[in-house]
Amino acid sequence: MTLAVQGHGKSQDRRHDKYDRLVAVAQSLPKLKVAVVHPCDAASLEAVFDAIELGLIEPILVGPQARIKAAAEMLGKDVSQTPIVDASHSHAAAEAAVQLVKSGQAEALMKGSLHTDELMGAVVRREGGLRTARRISHCFVMDVPSHETALIITDAAVNIAPTLEDKVHIVQNAIDLARALRVAPVRVAILSAMEIVNPKVPSTIEAAALCKMADRGQITGGILDGPLALDNAIDLGAAKIKRIQSPVAGQANVLVVPDLEAGNMLAKSLTFLADADAAGIVLGARVPIVLTSRADSTITRLASCAVASLVADAQRTKLSLPEV
């Protein structure tokens, strides 16, 4: 199965083998019961119908019923057989979607045509939200045409200037995601501007601390190394030139950035300069959260749904994170 791509002015005929594989695995799993929050425009609702047609999701549409039906009519789609929870505005839709998760009717959330802050505000609320003992973080699962494997980049969307304690959760969330995506082994590169520990560059100190924490079992499930510069994290030739001997250097599949600014620039550079696609997922809450953008291509939206399905499947097979 090869899926068409639209958006970002990308080449229309390039293959997306990495995302195709994710979608194929997700199609073999039970359909994801997802609450779609405020899908009141054509772009967000079209993504829902695409995912339904591929057998990825069983949606519950949450938002103003009249606006949802009007958007569906614009697309020529029938929502008469799709459950709709009427909510008068976007904030109410976010609250109602959270309640669907808490009642067990939904096992994932998907952002529609509302601001991310509105959705996440309902998720992270201390009373009645979906918080766990984990820090909430975002991962991009990136399909870079010139790179053999998918790259997980974190955190480029939620945590602005994470502390070392925050990064422990960010790294663990990313490792758990990679394992849910059937990645083995999970090789985590803690990125900085250099590959040596320099007391004048705080990100190198934190990278070294995270690696030692992994050695002591405070981070589990992956192989960590850092600090590593981007080139010697993903390119074996660059790692050999720098004489870095490591099971991670040159073959990392998880890239942990120092802060949101670095992550955002890295992800967008790959998207707009290297023709990459970036499926997005928020982790650390009780359920995975799909954050789609109006600029996302069709394959990116579908891959994001597939990623959420694989994460939800992994959560079905283990104890849920404790609530706080």
Structural description of this entry:
The structure is a single chain. It is globular and about 60 Å long. The protein has 2 domains: 1-132 and 285-324, Rossmann fold; 135-284, Isopropylmalate Dehydrogenase, CATH 3.40.718.10. The termini are far apart. An 11-stranded mixed sheet has the order 3-2-1-4-11-10-5-6-9-7-8, with helices on both faces. 50% of the residues are buried. The protein has 11 helices and 11 strands. With 324 residues, the protein is of the alpha/beta class. The model is unreliable at 4-9 and 319-324 (pLDDT under 50). Helix 4 (90-102) packs parallel to helix 5.
Percent of residues in beta strands: 15-25%
**CATH architecture verdict of the largest domain:** 3-Layer(aba) Sandwich
Derived from helix and strand composition plus strand pairing, the structural class reads alpha/beta
Could you name the ranges where pLDDT drops below 50 across 5 or more consecutive residues?
A: 4-9, 319-324
Number of strands: 11
Count of DSSP-assigned helices: 11
Give the radius of gyration: 19 Å
Average pLDDT reading: 92
CA-based shape? globular
Helix fraction, binned, reads: 40-55%
* Whole-number total of structural domains: 2
- The top-level CATH class of the largest domain is Alpha Beta
Q: Going across the major beta sheet, what is the strand order?
A: 3-2-1-4-11-10-5-6-9-7-8
Which fold name is given in CATH as the topology of the largest domain? Rossmann fold
Q: What's the end-to-end separation, in Å?
A: 42 Å
The helix/strand series, from N terminus to C terminus, equals HEHEHEHEHEEHEHEHHEHEEH
Major sheet characteristics: 11 strands, mixed
